[in-house]
Amino acid sequence: MTKLKSAVFLDRDGTINEQMGYINHTCRFQLLPGAAQAIKKLNDAHIPVVVVSNQSGLARGYFPEELLVAVHEKMHTLLAEEGAKVDAIYYCPHHPEAKEERFRESCNCRKPKPGLILQASKELGLDPEKSFVVGDRWSDIKTAANCGATSILVRTGYGRGDEQYIGPQQTIQPDFKADDLTGAVDWILKQ
């Protein structure tokens, strides 16, 4: 039996790139300072990096699927320019109030449900319970809890506000808090 690997599951908006609401044009996709170098550290340590992202803007008709593909291509290009890469991208296109019927559903992949991580783990041979989930929203922290992963809240994107205003009322708390992805990755590599 093949031994399952640990991985780092990264939220996209607010964790890897600037949080700008819905990215409805590729020019709005900007990497956060240090994000590529942080991902490269994981690459150099041979730790799989998987992006898991809710993309309800697609469901709501704010942008077409082709744009989402173009944004991900831009992310791959910008990361590659700094010697970094993500191993896979999984996203949830669903929303209960979706404009397009094909996206209108209550699914298991919309964070904080664990579907994206469970699907990636099955397809890529990863062990969620030995893995880390890094994000800027409490939904990321709950996603980690829902699949047994270690959770890290970054204070980029919505993180600082979520930490101050959402977190105190939550029963589920992050295992670690970091100022940014670099701080999160440095902590992960010490574990």
Note down, in words, how this protein is organized:
With 191 residues, the protein is α/β, with parallel strands linked by helices. It has a single domain (8-190), classed as Rossmann fold (3-Layer(aba) Sandwich), CATH 3.40.50.1000. Helix content is 36%, strand content 14%. The chain contains seven helices and six strands, in the order βαβααβαβαβαβα. Strands 3-2-1-4-5-6 form a six-stranded parallel beta sheet, sandwiched between helices. The chain starts with 7 loop residues before the first strand and ends with a helix.
Structural class: alpha/beta
CATH architecture assignment: 3-Layer(aba) Sandwich
**What is the overall silhouette?**
globular
| Total number of beta strands | 6
Give the strand order of the largest sheet, numbering strands 1, 2, ... along the chain. 3-2-1-4-5-6
What is the CA-based Rg, rounded?
16 Å
Number of domains: 1
**CATH T-level topology:** Rossmann fold
Instruction: Just give the CATH class.
Output: Alpha Beta
Beta strand %:
5-15%
Helix proportion: 25-40%
Largest sheet: 6 strands, parallel
CATH homologous superfamily descriptor: HAD superfamily/HAD-like
Average per-residue pLDDT, rounded, comes to 96
Low-confidence stretches: none
Number of helices: 7
Order of helices and strands: EHEHHEHEHEHEH
Distance between the termini: 25 Å
